Give the backbone structure.
Amino acid sequence: MLDFTSALYLGMDHSHASLPPWQRLTEGRPAALAEAAGASRLARRVAALVGCQAAVLAPSTLHLQWDLGSLAAGRALFLDAGAYATGRWGAERASSLGARAAVFTHHDPEALARAVAGAAQPIVSCDGFCPGCGRFAPLGAYLDVIEKHNGWLLVDDTQAVGVWGRESEQSPYGNGGGGSLQRLGLAHPRIVLLMSLAKAFGAPIAALAGGTSFVDAFRAASATRQACSPPSAAALSALSAALDDNETRGERRRGILHSNVATLRDAFGRRGLRLRQSRFPVQTLGRGYDGAALHARLRQRGVSAVLHASRPGNEARLSFLVTSRHGVKELERVAEATWRSFASLSASGARRQTDQRRGERTCGRRAMAEG
């Protein structure tokens, strides 16, 4: 089965044999009592990577969103309509604690300005990069809005970290892999980043990064750091290996990834198949097809892709997740399989229409004879 469902974009998979060893998988105590060995050092490395003053690690972005939802209690929270599910769950947590939560139009600073009018110290939550539409959020414009109200901007940068970096003429994705803030050249004490490092970096661990005062306040108030297990020694070891790899081979990995995306787009284009315009490794077919049927036909041809809808009620789409480990032959094969799947669906649809017309004519002749 050709797999185009993995978000390990840079091909970092961290086999057990490749990681530094650990003595205990867990210390048996929450992070609030004592940080695991090496956790503080790794948090500082993550903060430096994404361009923030400080960071704190967590098992997942869900843990971070839960705590941020608690911190938003009694405040006004505004969620970009395209935000990932964990952002919506954080908003629901905040609402349950008395926050006034509202959704504004995806990537629309004017809609945000209208929504926050009259709000004091609003919290705005969004994703740094949206793989659905292939664009960065207008973070600078969002920041201009919230600064007028003394608010905070929470940015989930899970998709961007490891892929996008500082603008560079030599590298299409930029240098460093530091994510949206590095790509857009933004740094501000009222921006708070949260990110899973389980995609491009392949480490099942999350981080919250921002100004030192905010991170310290978060660390002191975090309920999950008091009641939940911290990241395991295995996850910390994987993060350490990923950061080392990014420093030594990250640019090469990103170069291969970009080349693979270009190869896939070219292979689809030569067959007349339209992909949404984006250089990001999540490559999505355009509109106007039965996503579930195409997904099933591709599986019959040995291709696994991602069937999804951006929001409930939306048209189901098919996406192909490209990594640096894919080979040219695999990329050509998935394009050929998709073209043949479309062709077989079209043929099946034409046969159904012919059968339907034949049935209608037969019923018509029978009715005339009986009449």
Summary: The longest strand covers residues 191-196. The two ends are 57 Å apart (CA to CA). The first helix runs from residue 39 to 50.
